[in-house]
Amino acid sequence: MHSSWSSAQVRAAEEPLLAAGVPLMERASFALAGEVRRELLRRRGTVRGAAVTVLAGPGSNGGDALHAGALLVRAGVQVVAVATADRVHEGGLTALHRAGGRALRLGPDAGGLGGVGLPEAAELASRADVLLDGLLGIGATGAGVRGAAGELVAVLAERWPPGTPEDGRPCVVAVDVPSGVGVDDGTRAGPVLAADLTVTFGGLKPALLVPPAARAAGRVEVVDLGLDLAGRAAVVRLEDEDVAALWPVPGPEAHKYTRGVLGVVAGTRRYPGAAVLASTAAVLAGLGMVRYVGDVGPEVVAARPEVVVGEGRVQAWVLGPGVDPDDAGQRRRVDAALVGVR
Asked: Is 199 a domain residue?
């Protein structure tokens, strides 16, 4: 079972540690650099001489990526950072420069950083062994990456469509979350650079469990920062073994009513497949008995002979899908079931 916490919960858990002077960014960047080193070893067999490009946004995620870049330079990696906004995390930038890494700005020269155009930035990213995505963090709303950074992400995503072999592109490592996904709701409406690996800090975020955003996360590694993530989790995802543990197993005294009798009102003459699908799903769930009520009983029985057609005692209902608004008989059956529930 995997539990995740909202951006507000994570920030609240960080506040007392930051107030106490706990170096959370240093912890995060050290762990991030370690994950990148492992990826480089897996891909190249060695870390020294590898190339890493850092896409650095203006916030803390950009700072995490820049600090990690500085650590990688000291391990013999050639690191170049592309700052994609007017602001850049000063501490991370200073650390990268002191270590001997390079930093450029996407666009014209500014703030002491040399400018780099979109084609050149895309080429720097493409030639890297690892591309660190530190553009946006847990404040993102799911609208994708915007502005010049979004244009760069769109170019890279077009170069590496889904299914591109690993040896034909860099390994993309997302910092905390893939930039531009909806952190709290799992949305993904704009340009997002799909990651091979997401290194997330403190705890899982909903976007790493909920599709469509989760499909951009790749493999996920959680870095323990010592956060006290108290309270109810925002999203919990069950794994196969969790579902197996929760699934009831009938005992020797079990009968259809202890296992559950389900009534199904679904489908019409116009949409018979809906009735077959709903009844089949109910049977496969392991219920004690399934009753189908409607006009397409013969089709249901042909597909699932164990289904009983006709009214009778039930303990729960499935109403829909495929109930045609113009089918008065089936609508009456739905209404009758709802009256019984109330």
From this structure: yes
